[in-house]
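User: Predict the complex with nicotinamide-adenine-dinucleotide.
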Amino acid sequence: MGTGNVGATFAYALLFSGLAAEIVLINRDRETADGEAMDLSHSIPFAAPARIWAGTYEECAGAALTVLAAGAAQGEAPDRLSLAMQNGSIFGEIVPLVVRHNPGGILLVATNPVDVLTYATWKMSGLPRGRVIGSGTILDSARLCSLLGERLEVDPHDVSAVVVGEHGDSQVPLWSAAHVGGVPIRDVELGGGPLTRDDMVDIERRTRGAGQAIAERKGATYYAVAAGLVRIARAVLRNERSVLSVSTVMADYPGLEGRNVALSLPSVVGRDGVESVLRFTFEPSEREALQHSASVIERAISMIGIG
Ligand code: NAD
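Assistant: Here is the predicted structure with nicotinamide-adenine-dinucleotide placed in the model:
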């Protein structure tokens, strides 16, 4: 749903993943979706066998997963609140249509502000919490692992580090839980020495600012988020029960009781969507930062009138 930069790149990555037998592209502008479907279908001889076409909401029926990537990006709205209002109103059109035709599927939200829209999608859809997933900080966590891999001169696959909270400025890197090959990150001496406080501050800043830095250079970001969306799709479609940092509507999470908010925490993702959210012993500063992040998202949710 939404076949712009993010939607079309996701469809391309999904085709090459071999995970989907059928992919329907839905866009407000049917002709663009048609063009994307034609172009994408010509890559099938080099990819896994699949069928891809531009379709209608009726054709969502029976889909295991619907990815929502329709709407404007940050740079196209004067501020984050206007973006939330603008994309919230697009979601007010599309979510009821998707759910009417496919009440049994999982919804995966990519549109920004993703935590606010994950909450809005849950409200508008009437689906159980776990069946509405926001890509959340899966992208920020990948950026953090990638930057740590660079700094420590190791394969980022072997870096386990997670960003929680908002996919936005109030995000929280969980340094206390980060490790490399099972060794706590603070004990790792690689790439010219242990990670210093300055290194951490610099990596946090570059993780948080990556989206804007890329948008300033090329106008939009889409490859890494599309890869993250495929990772989530794989967990759902193969019922992997993978632990991924994704956004869901909180239900009495310790420290966030009574909050009307969706945010990211490491969560078990499988066939039924988010099946559980991991509990942590946070350091006091991390807990405080997570609560602040929840307040930022909650404020935006209530300001656009969906709380
Ligand atoms: P884009 O402008 O390239 O594409 C948006 C598409 O949505 C367009 O094709 C447009 O026709 C379509 N659309 C608009 N209203 C629609 C409607 N009512 N029904 C169906 N389709 C509709 O934008 P993009 O670069 O693909 O970004 C899409 C969203 O993804 C933005 O909100 C952006 O901020 C977000 N994004 C999220 C992440 C993340 O980590 N979650 C990362 C990058 C971008």
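Residues 50 and 219 are 31 Å apart (CA to CA).
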